[in-house]
Amino acid sequence: MKYSTLMFDLDGTLLDFNAYEQIALENLFSEYKVPFTNEIRNTYDMINKNLWLHYEKGDLALDQVLNSRFSETLKLYDHLIDGRDWENKYREYLAGGYRLIDGALETCEKLSTTHKMIIVTNGIRKTQIKRLKMSGLYAFFSEIFDSQSIGFQKPNRRFFEHVIDKTDDNELDKLLIIGDSLNTDVLGGINMGIDTCWFNPSNKSLSESNSIKSTYTISYLSELQEICSI
């Protein structure tokens, strides 16, 4: 087989983060008795996305992202809140459930018999481990690497250098990273000289100006089995 180690992103690749995020947000706003309207949700999404982009570029610390996203959102609606307190409660709700991407459990179970499998995530370690265990995926992965513990985040080269240094398999041509984000997973792999697999379940089209080109593109996780059997 061409690849011996598979590096999986988690949110949006194996776990349907968007589906459970909505539930966690609804519970959070309900607890604090703040109406959770579509307008507030859209504002939160915009602010949250912008903060994460700055984090991925190395412009913001992770704590700055997490502890300000709710306060910055609600400040626009004349609600002054404790952003850290809201974030801690949100983490509790988010860690309390999960939704698997279709085919995730079956694909990981089969590939784990022939490949070393690791998680590479920009998410919060404690939350990610809990969700992996709840989903039944935890047993298939030998290691979990997260940006919070490493101190650098995807697509930063130093994130991947740390991962490779800590794994037994450091031959780059034996590694494959699988993820749903072109800007973090695929770009990070390209910058490191690792083959990439873009998980694109909604079949997003790429503009001609987009220079991020993945080695493989799949719409279903089950397609990985053919790629990894080569």
Describe this entry's structure for a reader:
The chain is of the alpha/beta class. The model has no long low-confidence stretch (mean pLDDT 93). It is globular, with a radius of gyration of 18 Å. 33% of the residues are buried. The protein has a 6-stranded parallel beta sheet with strand order 3-2-1-4-5-6, sandwiched between helices. The chain folds into 2 domains: 5-16 and 100-228, Rossmann fold, CATH 3.40.50; 17-95, Orthogonal Bundle (DNA polymerase, domain 1). The protein has helices at 17-31, 38-56, 62-75, 83-95, 104-111, 125-135, 147-150, 157-166, 182-192, 224-228; strands at residues 5-8, 116-121, 143-146, 175-179, 195-199, 216-218.
How would you describe this structure in keywords?
230 residues, alpha/beta, Rossmann fold, DNA polymerase, domain 1, six-stranded parallel beta sheet, 10 helices, 6 strands, globular, Pyrimidine_5'-ntase_YjjG, HAD-like_sf, Haloacid dehalogenase
